Amino acid sequence: MSKILVTGACGQLGSELTAELRNIHGSEYVVATDITDPNPQIGEGPYEHLDVMNRDQIEKVIEQHEIRVVYHLAALLSANAEKKIGLAWKLNMDGLLNVLSIARDKSLEKIFWPSSIAVFGPDAQKNYTPQNSPCNPTTVYGISKLAGEQWCAYFHRSFGVDVRSLRYPGLIGYKSLPGGGTTDYAVEIYHKAVKGEPFECFLDKASILPMMYMSDAVKATIDLMNASEKNISIRTSYNIAAISFSPEEISDAIRKNIPGFEITYTPDHRQKIADSWPNSIDDSTARSDWNWKPEHDLHSMTEDILKHLPGFWGVETP
Ligand code: AKB
Q1: What is residue 313's predicted lDDT score, i.e. its pLDDT?
Q2: How far is it, in rounded angstroms, from Cα 276 to Cα 87?
Q3: Which domains does the chain possess?
Q4: Where on the phi/psi map is residue 313: left (φ > 0), alpha (ψ -120 to 50), or beta?
Q5: How does pLDDT run across 99-122, given as a tens digit for each residue?
Q6: Most exposed residue of 61, 192, 197, 228, measured as fewest CB within 10 angstroms of its CB?
Q7: Pocket of ligand 1 (CB under 6 A)
Q8: Residue 176: in which H helix or E strand, if any?
Q9: Is 47 in the active site?
């Protein structure tokens, strides 16, 4: 059994992916790392403090734990990246280049790296944005993801590194909180709703964005990593899609369960970022290459989240 390293393990995706990898492979085979203290969501298992901008530190952890597979998730998200453009570039690029070059030098088996719908800019087709759409991002985060995709393809082409990637839409879960993204409103809204509080949305009510329930995102990641190498035709990053909705549509879905829920709209600097991204994504290549198919729509996701968040129907968080 190959040992796995997860960077950014305490982040929104990292917390749930690490827990699932530990369920599948056994805790001792999954080494979680981050720059913070471990968070309880990731479960029991080996944990290392790791700054991905420091190549020597990564190399040491990989050697010490005899790691063969890396899920490299550590990054700054879109809204935070606009506030700290130098750090965003350094963290998102140096981190990836460190992992890719170590994978080449140590002949690691497989690398996973997350890209985003942020690679698309205002000139991309807005609806069902195709896999090979023009990519002219207008955010630092989008530029770093686009450059990262090209580095992944380069390391695969030039050095045979088996690196795989997904262009995630906004990810929505109830177990972990996002930080510094443009799609974060779609997580915060549920937390307000179960407390019976009104929600002030930082995007316009009609801003449609591609989104995905966390369980689908975790499944997509693991399915892609388990796919046979011969089925991987995209070495930049795969489009994947599940749901598209606006703040008004998600609040209507919540109101079906919590009739008194109130929302107001005060668009801020994040509106400009949202306006530059697609409304929906064409993920037909992922579907045909490795049988990708999401399980949740807006309503099943909403019911599942509300069922699990404390405060709603008296159900306690596990
Ligand atoms: C963000 O909003 O920055 C992320 C993303 C879409 O990549 N959730």
Answers
A1: 54
A2: 22
A3: 3-169+214-239 (3.40.50.720), 172-210+242-314 (3.90.25.10)
A4: left
A5: 999 999 999 999 999 999 999 999
A6: 228
A7: 77-78, 116-118, 141, 168-170, 181-183
A8: none
A9: no
Q: Are 194 and 309 in contact (CB under 8 A)?
A: yes
Pick the catalytic residue from 141, 168, 190, 238: 141
pLDDT score recorded for residue 317: 41
Per DSSP, the three-state class of 98 is helix
Q: What is the distance in A from the centroid of ligand 1 to the CA of 106?
A: 31
**Euclidean distance between CA atoms 115 and 129, whole angstroms:** 15
Measured in angstroms, how far is the CA atom of residue 75 from the centroid of ligand 1?
A: 11
pTM: 0.96
Structure token pair of residue 126: 């807005």
Give the tens place of pLDDT for each residue, 220-277: 999 999 999 999 999 999 999 999 999 999 999 999 999 999 999 999 999 999 999 9
Q: How far apart are alpha carbons 198 and 189 in whole angstroms?
A: 9
